[in-house]
Design brief:
The complex is a heterodimer of chains A (212) and B (120). By secondary structure, chain A is of the alpha/beta class. In chain A, 43% of the residues lie in helices and 11% in strands. Chain A has helices at 10-13, 25-39, 45-58, 62-73, 75-83, 85-90, 125-128, 138-146, 148-154, 191-197, 200-204, and strands spanning 101-106, 111-116, 164-169, 174-179. Classes of the chains: A alpha/beta (212), B mainly alpha (120).
């Protein structure tokens, strides 16, 4: 069938580039799926490319950071975010919305919120982009529930004993956005400057937002 | 909070959470393609968000049972496995059809000269 199977032959070794390099097994399985689904009219290759571009360039945690900064400076917006986060986030009209139902959970000096998806990797993609690998790992999915305080310590977040930790288990239907506490000493900063302080980890709840 | 946490792999509870500061979004292009397929199919109504989460959760459990590290590095393999299973469950593409199409791609790569676009 191919020269490939003889490629270990010294004579033919330098010929290994005569045909295209064979992709990896998962890459071939994806090609099989994509070509079949395209033929069936179930996916549009242009839409697939558009999604990939959105993942790679257009969405990331910046949208979530804008939501948080707006909530910090605009009490009326914060109220709307509390009562209907999906709608309040919709006001800002971000790309890549998936019609996900989002609930905002607010950190206070007494309560700290932590988000996990124990089943798989449910995550508020439209405002935080793609989840980091650790969010999808078995140790985080398991330990965030069993030992949230220990997990937070591992992320360098040492909470005083009196602070209550609430763990939110995401599902396909409900995703959570942690609204971290606004750090002290940032009263003079603009909404845009504040947004720059808000990290992805703080919106998952594994870290706090630090003053610059 | 709901219950599935209690069903998690017991060993995972003892492992450190591995993090890396500058991990790439996707290690290889097929990972992005697999995820985009899952999202596009969901938006096109082939399956619901709940069906997808269930399929992905089941794929992760199968992988764990087969000794997968499930540390995040193999996540997109689970996505691909979940997609293939859902396609079979929904009778959109059987395992045989998927295998035959994969073989057709292998054949296409092997007959296409280097540098030329590979077509079925």
């Amino acid at each position: 069938m191919s020269q490939h199977s003889h490629a270990h032959d010294d004579d033919l070794a330098h010929h290994h580039d005569i045909h295209s390099e064979l992709p990896s097994d998962p890459a071939l399985r994806v090609k099989a799926l994509e070509s079949l689904l395209t033929e069936k009219g179930l996916v549009d290759p242009a839409a697939i490319d558009a999604w990939i571009e959105i993942y790679e360039s257009k969405i990331g945690p910046r949208n979530g950071a804008k939501v948080v900064a707006k909530a910090w400076v605009d009490p009326a917006y914060k109220q709307r975010l509390r009562s209907d986060a999906t709608k309040a986030i919709g006001e800002l009209d971000f790309l890549g919305r998936q019609g996900q139902h989002i609930v905002a959970v607010e950190n206070t000096p007494e309560v700290h919120n932590l988000v996990v998806c124990t089943l798989c990797s449910c995550y508020p993609l439209s405002i935080l982009g793609l989840p980091p690998a650790w969010y999808k790992s078995a140790p985080y999915r398991s330990r965030a529930v069993l030992d949230p305080r220990g997990v937070l310590k591992e992320f360098g977040t040492d909470l005083p004993e009196h602070v209550k930790i609430r763990v939110w288990d995401s599902t396909a239907e409900v995703r959570y956005l942690v609204v971290p506490e606004r750090p002290a000493g940032t009263e003079h900063l603009s909404e845009e400057q504040l947004a720059a302080l808000v990290t992805r980890d703080s919106m998952i709840g594994v870290a706090k937002v630090k003053a610059p | 909070m709901s219950g599935p946490a209690q069903k998690s792999c017991a060993d995972a509870a003892l492992q450190p959470i591995r993090r890396s500061e500058h991990e790439p979004l996707f290690a290889e292009p097929w990972e992005a393609q697999a995820l985009a397929l899952a999202v596009a199919l969901q938006q096109g109504g082939c399956f619901t968000a709940v069906e997808w989460a269930d399929a992905l959760g089941a794929a992760i459990k199968r992988a764990q049972a087969a000794g997968d590290p499930d540390d995040g590095s193999t996540y997109y393999r689970h996505v691909l496995d979940a997609l293939e299973h859902l396609m079979q469950e929904k009778q959109i593409a059987s395992a045989d059809l998927l295998a035959a199409r994969k073989a057709a791609w292998v054949e296409a790569y092997e007959r296409t000269p280097h540098g030329k676009p590979v077509e079925l």
